[in-house]
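Contributing new records

If you add data, match the layout below exactly. Sequence lines come first and carry their own label; structure lines follow with theirs. Keep one chain per record. Anything else will be rejected by the validation script.
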Amino acid sequence: MTRRLGPGKLVIATHNAGKLKEISALLAPFGTECISAGALGLPEPEETGTTFTANALIKAHAAAQASGLPALADDSGLSVAALDGRPGVYTADWAERQWFEGAPGRDWFMAMGKVEGMLVALGPDTPRDAWFTSVLALAWPDGEQAVYEGRVDGTLAWPPRGAMGFGYDPAFVPAGETRTFAELHPAEKQAISHRAAAFAKLVAEQFGG
């Protein structure tokens, strides 16, 4: 049996408001008070891992050490079958503007356009299969850790649709749906998302009987 979280504060190792809101909603039923690394003024560690698991652990351990509290990090991304799994762990990097693309920061529409441009270049019959992966890493200040992984498969849509998601959500249609993640109500997305699948594993181990 892995170590369990008790009630109280949990640092969510993110500076992303959308991700914090989604994770907080998933943990609310368990008496967990979520606070973001951004709200605590914690620096973002350099994500030097080459897998989702490695990067999630880097973020979780950094937040736990800096705050003295248990921390939860998510590393997630979009993988496209026809692009050999790219952007994968570099999902967020594809959204970073280069010096010739405007002010520094992330432009997710630009990132979705890069993916679409590469698919178009491969030809009109290129499969549009894709999947989102989410790895959740829990870390305690003493170094103990636990990891949970979830995945959701689907296809890519163009042009992007919807305004309720974040990241690549407007371009991703989960299997069995005609709407993109960004067209789904947050409660609908949370029921089927890659993050929800990872959370189901976390909840079963951390809060189950």
